[in-house]
C-alpha cells in the first residue's frame, strides 16, 4: 500500500484554490510501485509502467500506399504520357519475385512491399492499360504514393511512455510492435462508503425520512472508469465508533479510503472526529462551488478523502481531489483538464476568488457555433442537474460576470474520468 506521512495534507491558508489543491496532491501522494503484466486485450485504461522503445520501424518495410503500378523514378514521363511494359505483380503479404528492371513497371497493391529498383507508384485511377503495357501520365513526383519504412515510427524511438493511461490507439501501437503483454501499474484499491442515518441502500427498505444512497454508486462508477478496484463498504451510520472501526479495518488493505457525507461541521457530522480518533485529518476549505469542505487525512499510512454529501458537490470535488489523487497513486502523468471554448447562452454572476462550475447542455447556435445552455436551477442536491446536462462550464477565480455571447470553457463529463 502507499504509505504517507501524517501531516502530508496539512495546508497553511484558510482557503485553498483548486490549483493549490491539485498541486499539493501531486507533490504529497506517493505512487504505488507494484507492477503486473496484462495481455493487450486487458490493457485499455491501465497505466503503463515503463517506457516502450519501438522494437521495429513502422511500417516495417517500404510499401505502396495505393493500388497501382510501381516504377523507378528514372522512368517517370516528363512532358507527355508514355507506355511501358508491365512485367511483374506483387500483392500485400508477398514480395516481388525479383528486382524491377529499368523501363518496366510492376502491378502493385496497397501494403505490398516495393520491389527493389522501384521507388514511385502510379495510382491505378491515373493510368490506362493497353495490352501488356501501362500508359503513365507525365508530371508525377519521384517517391509518390510510397510509404517508406519507419515513416510512422522509426525503430528505437520512445513510442509509449511510463505513466501513460493506455487508450485504444496506444494498445494498437503495442500490437503493431508485435508485443503481446504490457507491464502496467496494478489497480489502485479504493474502499468506498457513504455515511448518514438518512441513507438506505437500493434494495433495502426505505423509512419515511430516508433516501436511497446514490453518491456511493456514482463514486464507484467514476473510480471504475479511472481503472480502480473498488470495495463497496455500504453505508455507515452517523456514529463515531462504528465509523472509526470501519475506517481502521480497511486502511491496511486499500490505497485510498473514500467517503461521502458527514464532513461539514454540524454536530451530526462525525467523519472528522472518527478519522481523528484513528489517524490524522485536515479540513480543506476549497474555493470552489459547488463544493464545501473536503476532508483529507491519513489513517495508518493510507490516504483518506471525505467528500461532501450533496451529490453535485460530491461530483465536482471528486474531479478536483479524488481524480488527481488516483492519478498520483498510479504514478500516472498528470492529466490537466482542458476546457474547450464554447459560447455562453446564459448570464451568471459569481464571487471573485472562487472557482465555479455551471452545469450546462450544449447545442448548436444558428451560426453553427457551439453554445452552452445553463441548467435552469442551481441546487447542489439536484441529481437531475447532472443527468440532464452534458458537462461543466468552468469559471475562473477572476471572473465575476458572464453575459450571453461570451466565450467560456466547457468540460464534457466524458473528459472528467
Ligand atoms: P452531509 O454532507 O452529510 O451534510 O449531507 C448533505 C446532503 O447530502 C444531505 O441532504 C444528505 O442527505 C445528502 N447526502 C448525503 N450522503 C448522500 C448519499 N450518499 N447519496 C445521496 N445524498 C446524500
Ligand atoms: Mg450527513
- CATH architecture group name of the largest domain: 3-Layer(aba) Sandwich
Question: Going across the major beta sheet, what is the strand order?
Answer: 7-4-6-5-9-8
Give the overall pLDDT as a whole number.
95
Radius of gyration: 30 Å
Family: Belongs to the MoeA family.
InterPro entries: MoaB/Mog-like_dom_sf (IPR036425), MoaB/Mog_dom (IPR001453), MoeA-like (IPR038987), MoeA_C_domain_IV (IPR005111), MoeA_C_domain_IV_sf (IPR036688), MoeA_linker/N (IPR005110), MoeA_linker/N_sf (IPR036135)
EC number: 2.10.1.1
Function: Catalyzes the insertion of molybdate into adenylated molybdopterin with the concomitant release of AMP.
Task: Describe the 3D structure.
It is a single chain. The protein has 417 residues and is of the alpha/beta class. The protein folds into 4 domains: 18-34 and 188-329, MoaB/Mog-like domain (Molybdenum Cofactor Biosythetic Enzyme, Chain A, 3-Layer(aba) Sandwich), CATH 3.40.980; 52-58 and 151-184, no CATH class; 63-147, Beta Complex (Molybdopterin biosynthesis moeA protein, domain 3); 340-415, MoeA, C-terminal, domain IV (Beta-clip), CATH 2.40.340. Helices cover 18% and strands 30% of the residues. It has helices spanning 18-28, 168-176, 215-225, 240-251, 271-278, 311-329, 384-387, and strands spanning 35-39, 52-53, 63-64, 68-71, 82-90, 105-108, 120-123, 128-130, 133-136, 146-147, 158-160, 181-185, 189-195, 199-200, 211-212, 229-236, 256-260, 280-284, 288-289, 294-299, 302-307, 340-344, 348-349, 355-364, 370-374, 391-395, 401-402, 407-412. The strands form 8 sheets. A 6-stranded mixed β-sheet has the order 7-4-6-5-9-8, with no helix packed on it. A 6-stranded mixed β-sheet has the order 16-13-17-21-20-18, sandwiched between helices. Strands 22-25-24-26-28 form a 5-stranded mixed beta barrel. β24 and β25 (370-374) form a beta hairpin. Bound molecules: adenosine monophosphate (AMP) and magnesium ion (MG). InterPro entries: MoaB/Mog-like_dom_sf, MoaB/Mog_dom, MoeA-like, MoeA_C_domain_IV, MoeA_C_domain_IV_sf, MoeA_linker/N, MoeA_linker/N_sf. One of its GO terms (cellular component) is cytosol. It catalyses: adenylyl-molybdopterin + molybdate = Mo-molybdopterin + AMP + H(+).
Amino acid at each position: 500500500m502507499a504509505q504517507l506521512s501524517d501531516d502530508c495534507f496539512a495546508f497553511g491558508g484558510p482557503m485553498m484554490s483548486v490549483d493549490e489543491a491539485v498541486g499539493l496532491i501531486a507533490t504529497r501522494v506517493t505512487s504505488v510501485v507494484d507492477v503486473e503484466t496484462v495481455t493487450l486485450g486487458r490493457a485499455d485504461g491501465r497505466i503503463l509502467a515503463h517506457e516502450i522503445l519501438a522494437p521495429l520501424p513502422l511500417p516495417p518495410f517500404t510499401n505502396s500506399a495505393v493500388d497501382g503500378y510501381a516504377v523507378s523514378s528514372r522512368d517517370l514521363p516528363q512532358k507527355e504520357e508514355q507506355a511501358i511494359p508491365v512485367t511483374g505483380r506483387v500483392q500485400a503479404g508477398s514480395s516481388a519475385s525479383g528486382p524491377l528492371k529499368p523501363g518496366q513497371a510492376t502491378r502493385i497493391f496497397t501494403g505490398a512491399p516495393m520491389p527493389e529498383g522501384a521507388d514511385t507508384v502510379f495510382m491505378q485511377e491515373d493510368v490506362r492499360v493497353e495490352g501488356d503495357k501501362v500508359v503513365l501520365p507525365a508530371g508525377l513526383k519521384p517517391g509518390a504514393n510510397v510509404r517508406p519504412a519507419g515513416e510512422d515510427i522509426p525503430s528505437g524511438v520512445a513510442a509509449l511512455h511510463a505513466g501513460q493511461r493506455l487508450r485504444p490507439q496506444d494498445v494498437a501501437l503495442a500490437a503493431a510492435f508485435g508485443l503481446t503483454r504490457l507491464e502496467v501499474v496494478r489497480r489502485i484499491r479504493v474502499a468506498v462508503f457513504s455515511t448518514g442515518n438518512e441513507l438506505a441502500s437500493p434494495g433495502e427498505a426505505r423509512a419515511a425520512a430516508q433516501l436511497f444512497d446514490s453518491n456511493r454508486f456514482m463514486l464507484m462508477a467514476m473510480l471504475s472508469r479511472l481503472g480502480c478496484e473498488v470495495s463497496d463498504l455500504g453505508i455507515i451510520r452517523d456514529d463515531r465508533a462504528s465509523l472509526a472501526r470501519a475506517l481502521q479495518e480497511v486502511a491496511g488493505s486499500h490505497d485510498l479510503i473514500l467517503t461521502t457525507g458527514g464532513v461539514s461541521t454540524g454536530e451530526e457530522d462525525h467523519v472528522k472526529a472518527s478519522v481523528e480518533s484513528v489517524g490524522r485529518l485536515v479540513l480543506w476549505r476549497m474555493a470552489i462551488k459547488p463544493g464545501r469542505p473536503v476532508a483529507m487525512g491519513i489513517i495508518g499510512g493510507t490516504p483518506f478523502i471525505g467528500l461532501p454529501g450533496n451529490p453535485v458537490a460530491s461530483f465536482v470535488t471528486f474531479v478536483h481531489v479524488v481524480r488527481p489523487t488516483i492519478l498520483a497513486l498510479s504514478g500516472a502523468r498528470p492529466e490537466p483538464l482542458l476546457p474547450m471554448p464554447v459560447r455562453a447562452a446564459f448570464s451568471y454572476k459569481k464571487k471573485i476568488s472562487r472557482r465555479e462550475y455551471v452545469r450546462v447542455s450544449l447545442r448548436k447556435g444558428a451560426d453553427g457555433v457551439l453554445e452552452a445552455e445553463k441548467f435552469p436551477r442551481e441546487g447542489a442536491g439536484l441529481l437531475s442537474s447532472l443527468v440532464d446536462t452534458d458537462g461543466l462550464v468552468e469559471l475562473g477565480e477572476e471572473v465575476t460576470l458572464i453575459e450571453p455571447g461570451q466565450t467560456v470553457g466547457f468540460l464534457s463529463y466524458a473528459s472528467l474520468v
